[in-house]
Amino acid sequence: MGCAKKRMNPKVLNYVNRNFYSCFTKAVIKAVKQLPSPWKPGRLGRKGHDPKEVAVACILKVGFNQTYDSIEAFLKESETFKNSFEDIPGSSVTHRGMKKLSTSYIRKVMNRVTTFLKRQGMNIAVDSSGFSTTNSSLWYDIRILRENKKKDFVKLHISVDIDTGIIHWYTITASNRHDSPEFRKILKHLPDLGAVFGDKGYCSRENCQDAADKNAVPYLLFRDNARNYAKGKPAWIISIRAYRNNKDEWLSVYHLRSIVESVFSSIKKRWKSYLLSRKRWMQRKELSLKVMSYNVKQVLLVQYAKRCKIPLWKYCR
How far apart are alpha carbons 86 and 244 in whole angstroms? Predict the structure, then answer.
């Protein structure tokens, strides 16, 4: 990949890192309180905890890389949390709440946090990466006719705004799912775009046309055997001619997609590259919370840069 052309402004990053716990907690509480309750409390028995406070505890548990016991201790010491809610959910309450929390609700909270940064004409980079699990692949066992120690993984497909580093949409699939079919899904909920960048895994006539239908210029790296046949997709022939007529200039623009590698690196470095959950539906939930936690932190960086009127990025020499 070579050296990075830009990196996060140290002034912005240092401020958010110093105040991460308090700023993150405030942002999550604000977003959760603006949304309807994640589930309806039961009618029978004694009155339980407020579902919103339990949802916040679940999000903070993953956002701070804490165990259920340690997040309970953190909430007891957090003045921000105690000023917003009456009760402190215990570790067992948070554990049960994690099972009730849905991936659709997690996505709603994430969209509530990032919605003000979604705009027309964004330049988007798409890519995927694997997150390992504790499960062993049954399909691999069948193929080699013996039990193996190779661990399975799930794939995270994301679309990232190049200017802010925000993940505006994502999908989670099995490890054997190809990248190309997910392209349409991660662009479907976005407004009209400026340019869309992707590697060879997304190179197809359908994906080029899908990008063009969003009024975007597709920069999907072509395979060596790509042919000059449109086959009913005019965006393909336009894109491949631009690539072959001026390859150096085309590639210089294409390499803006490298920011998506930095996003995956940031998620895996802070929130780990593996999932502790064993059930597939819980793995999706855990990974969704990791994506949302990354977005909350990135929004804090963008907000601080705007408030202080300093650049979000520093360009490297």
Answer: 64
Residue 175's nearest CA partner among 212, 237, 218, 131 is: 131
User: What sections of the chain are H helices per DSSP?
Assistant: 10-18, 20-33, 51-63, 68-77, 79-84, 91-100, 103-114, 138-144, 182-188, 205-213, 234-245, 247-254, 259-271, 280-308
Q: How far is the C-alpha of 156 from the C-alpha of 263, rounded, in Å? A: 12
pLDDT score recorded for residue 143? 66
Q: How many CB atoms lie within 10 A of CB 297?
A: 23
Cα(315)–Cα(123) distance, integer angstroms:
18
Q: Quick check: 129 and 156 in contact, CB under 8 A? A: yes
Q: Residues 83, 98: contact at Cβ < 8 Å?
A: no
285 touches 293 (CB < 8 A): no
Give the global pTM. 0.91
User: 3-class DSSP state for residue 189?
Assistant: coil
For residue 170, give the 3-state DSSP assignment.
Answer: strand
Which amino acid, 19?
A: N
Q: What is the pLDDT of residues 126-171, one digit of tens each?
A: 999 999 987 666 555 666 666 666 667 899 999 999 999 999 999 9
